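Write out the 3D structure for:
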Amino acid sequence: MDNVPYGEWGEYLHALLEEYGIHDGLVVDLGCGTGTMTEYLAEKGYDMIGVDNSSDMLAIAMEKKIESGKDILYLMQDMRELDLYGSARAIVSICDSVNYITEPEELCEVFRHVGEFLDDDGFFIFDFNTDYKYREVIGEQTIAENREDCSFIWDNYYYEEERINEYELSLFIRDEDLSGEDGDVFRRYQETHYQRGYILSEMEELIRSAGMVPVKAYDAFTRDEPSETSERIYMIVKKGEV
């Protein structure tokens, strides 16, 4: 993820929050990962809660929190079982976190929980990777990169009928304890990730089924309407009538 321009993404997200009147108050970062965006929004003056279901990622987020001194609350929860202590001015979820919810009915449940914990005038802002991106851009590709301390091989498969994208990652990471004068020792780790390729009309239907209202959709990082070739779409959602 070190090639992700978090600064630019953060500026775009912050501009959307301000555009919809969220200038301060409590903001929840759903699927916060290692807390990079959570830290960014805290720097902008929001009271931040980060939610993720990975203890390893939250451990890194906590290290960042200690280093920055930001007053951020991190919760280890599955977004399908979101349970907060009160309501928030806004809930955000970026970096295609919702694509990891591969069953539409479960994503609808996520939206229901989001609606429960939003202020009446609050907004939910999230992004998602489209079916087009998985089908036409990522497709059946293999990506490999060799670095000094680590290397990886990323095999990608997209099953069009199910609209499921499978990532198979082989990671080779230098073991500092075992490496020395005789050479470097690398450990191999394997991960498999699954994401669903959603389309805009499907997202809008799930949002409405959850009792929320889709307010606006943008081709990512622009103010343009999404098109058939949009790879990532940002959505602004509100509960109740707009």
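The mean pLDDT is 93.
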